[in-house]
Specification:
alpha+beta; Aminopeptidase; two-stranded antiparallel sheet; binds coenzyme A; GNAT family N-acetyltransferase; Acyl_CoA_acyltransferase; GNAT_dom
Length: 182
Amino acid sequence: MGLVGATLARALDHGHDAILRDLAVVLQSPEPSWGSLSASLGLLLVAVDSTGQVVGALLAHPPTSFLLNLAGQGLEQKNVFLGHIAIAKIKGLAVAENSRHSGIGSALLRRCREVYWQCGYELLYGQFHSDRGLLPSFYRASDFEVLSENDGVDLWVVFGQRVVLTNESGERVFYRWRRHSG
Ligand SMILES: CC(C)(COP(=O)(O)OP(=O)(O)OC[C@H]1O[C@@H](n2cnc3c(N)ncnc32)[C@H](O)[C@@H]1OP(=O)(O)O)[C@@H](O)C(=O)NCCC(=O)NCCS
């Protein structure tokens, strides 16, 4: 189960139950391996040009550190699991400089959404440093909400309790709910 994207790939082929099966395996372990679970629910996308050269990449996975941090503050274990099957964080996205402004970045974002929505996820988010003045327009062009530095996302819909997803210092959160999307 530790392979990057292994569980996600099974879920694409066999539906959401594949994720629940792998979660059940983790649950049975006396020491749940969150890192391994997170990797198996991760997504690495690459874009290649006509010569096979990699010109863009995106990495996403469930926000394990954030969820474990919340667990340390009292979030129930069942909600830590829920977070792993409902929320994915875009950890990295980059397009080669000479391939930018031709739609590759937004295509990687779109495919990322398609994969996680198909696997039953509810929320995609990420963050970038506030001094990256051009990124809000990039994410908004893909229908993500972009928050100001002091703002967060209320995760009530996921957990049924008030949990706010906030940014790290100096960062801004961008996010998109599945229910707003096609
Ligand atoms: C941000 C990045 C991934 C965008 O990739 P891209 O392939 O150039 O983006 P797209 O061509 O899909 O752009 C889609 C839309 O976003 C907006 N956009 C993209 N780059 C923009 C820029 N530099 N300034 C303003 N708007 C921009 C535009 O609306 C664009 O649509 P348009 O070209 O029809 O006007 C790329 O610039 C990059 O790799 N930057 C460095 C790494 C980085 O900042 N990653 C994000 C970390 S959170």
